[in-house]
Amino acid sequence: MTILSIGRTSFDITCPVEEYPVEGTKYLLSEKIESGGGQAANVAYLLGKWGETSYFAGVVGSDDYGTKIRKELEQVMVKTDLMENTYEIGTPVSVILVNKKNGSRTRFDIVSATQPTLKKYEYTIKPDVIFTDGKEYSATINALNKFPKAISVLDAGRVDRDLLELCKYVNYIVCSKGFAEAVSSLKIDYNNSSTLVQVYKKLKDRYPNNNIIVTLENMGAMYSYNGEIKIMPGIKTKVVDPSCAGDIFHGAFVYCIANNFDLEKAITYANITAGLSVGKMGGRPSIPNLKEVINYYNQKFNIVEAPPVEEKKPVTGEEELPDIPDASKIVIPPTGATTSGLDATFTVGGATIPVITPNNDNNGNVQ
Fold first, then answer.
1. What is the pTM of this model?
2. Which of 1, 24, 127, 168 has the most Cβ atoms closer than 10 angstroms to its Cβ?
């Protein structure tokens, strides 16, 4: 399977500490863990590590951090052809303090107020699956239009205009508890199961044609299967460092969907993968290998041998999304040309998909 991950990346520096620092004091740290980070890049990394044909489309700075990120992805066979370098600003950096006593983390993101976005929307591949973290809105919309038959998965971890719009066009919305509460205007109380049902129903009312999975931190994940709202519990493990657990959940989920696992098995695998990761220090370095996850799953369900991967079938759900119009019919007007008489939007499933025009130079060439 060919899987395209679109979004942001960063460089993570994880520092284990004995206790949270007190202001005005000096500490000597004996270790640090450096690796690439960022939601979409972490998903692409896991997929490459697990043997999928994985592409990452995102922007890095033309600096040492950007070079390290590219090399690290390529070490697990992630294709970096669609990555772009920028000279405008440096690669975002995150410094993460992890308290070794209780596994809590404190994160400092060093990010410019204005992040450069992908400028080229020319894809030399035909992905079977598209994953997006929603931070490259224009590039994502163009990919969805160009590859209407690809299975699409969105990581909805925050609430903003672009991400709410993208939710209308994807097959799977995998959202955080915070996103679910904000969109539903309701609070989840784990001691009151009716609040979980109410939140999920509100989400389903807003996005009736999507498969929706709500991650509930260490409580597992909530989803709908055969008309029932269910919770798949997470695995019990000692939390050493929760960094990137959400990204790792998404990566494992995308792998399972790409390989035609049913929804419940996909969520189980994702829970196991994320659960195993929090028992190790660091973000991306904590990603377990596929064999480790399969062995845990087999032991959990007393399976002697891992079942064979089934042949690819169409996405199923309570209702399937209508096809997005064929990208070959998109007309991009040259610079300065009037758009009179041209459709500026597509309509699909009651939602309007905008056409995003790439940047063009004065000769009408895509930059």
1. 0.82
2. 127
